[in-house]
Amino acid sequence: MARTKHTAKRGLSRPHRKRFQFTGSPSARRKAAGLWILHPQSDTGASSEDAHQGTQRQTEKRSRRSRPGVVALREIRRLQKLTKLLIPFAPFARLIREITGFYSREVTRWTPDALLALQEAAECHLQAMFEDAYLCSIHAKRVTLSKSY
Fold first, then answer.
1. DSSP-derived secondary structure for 36-71
2. Measuring CA to CA, how many Å separate 118 from each of 24, 95, 126?
3. Class assignment of domain 86-149?
4. Ramachandran sector of residue 95 (left: φ over 0; alpha: ψ -120 to 50; beta: rest)
5. Segment 47-78, tens digit of pLDDT
6. Measured between alpha carbons, how far is 148 from 140 in angstroms, rounded to an integer?
7. What is the pTM of this model?
8. What is the DSSP secondary structure assignment for residue 9, as one 8-state letter?
9. Would you list the domain boundaries of the chain?
10. 115 and 93 in contact (C-beta within 8 Å)?
11. CA 109 and chain centroid, separation
12. Element spanning 29, H or E
């Protein structure tokens, strides 16, 4: 049996609610409400370019806001398609050299191929660890991954 979405049935026992009718765009509603401030052209002989700038400001559309989480999901999908490394190479190489200097004074130089291999292995390990941690947070009925104490 297929899952279907059950919509709410409108029974006769509930009173009919009044619905608001909005006509036009939000900017048209603002203009009608008097919230749109127009700067009149001055009588000092303003040029047609100044008038064009004023109308351009009035007709300029605002960027649309997306719902919370939509941009994050879009970024996740984009990053999952990429095959390049996400950690910048220079800071990672500095970290490797610092760790190596802490543990051994004999190894002071790294080939670029060795650093790339280490970086790829480190990113793969971090990704697997974050995936497992996110699955644990979902198991604990949380949406957000948070550190445990």
1. S---PPPTTT--HHHHHHHHHHHHPPPPPPPPTTHH
2. 58, 11, 12
3. mainly alpha
4. alpha
5. 555 555 655 566 677 788 888 889 988 998 99
6. 12
7. 0.52
8. P
9. 86-149
10. yes
11. 40
12. helix 26-33
